[in-house]
Amino acid sequence: MKYILSFLALLVAFLFLGCSAKNYEHTQPKIFVIKSPKLKFADLGYLRNTNTSIELELFVAGTSVEKITINHLICVSKGCMSKSGFNSEYLNASYPDEMLQNILLSEPIYNGLNKVITPIGYEQVIENEYVDIVYRVRQGAAFFRDRKNNISFKHKDTQLRIDDE
Length: 165
Fold this sequence. Notes:
By secondary structure, the protein is α+β, with helices and mostly antiparallel strands. It has helices spanning about 1-20, 85-90, 100-105; strands spanning about 25-35, 40-50, 55-60, 65-70, 75, 80, 115-120, 120-125, 130-140, 140-145, 150-155. It has an eleven-stranded antiparallel beta sheet. The chain starts with a helix and ends in an 8-residue tail after the last strand.
């Protein structure tokens, strides 16, 4: 009986701790600049990810001010919503569902539409009735600007110098 109770206590502790902490495979400190009608931020952030989940934790003067988690939903401090709901509320309703995670992971947007390989990475220019986007990616940095909707994202590795931009 003593062994069964010890085993159950250990099992409960393991399950509790397993649910409370997410082990991300990759963690990268980056400098983020985010400007949209509802998001404004410029400081350090930590980008953590696995194959199925992304977490962006944003800091101002060393204090965590926002955590955005992306898996099948996007969760912010105000609650969780669908990816299309997040785009409608925080970015632009015409954006594809995977837009935010593609920008954070420096992956092509709009399924690689108009992707041009450059000597230092790649660039996409996408213009239609809803967007006017310039998106540039290179090792350690990404720049996204939608002039039509006044939205921009920029992130770069903390070890890049100012003149590397």
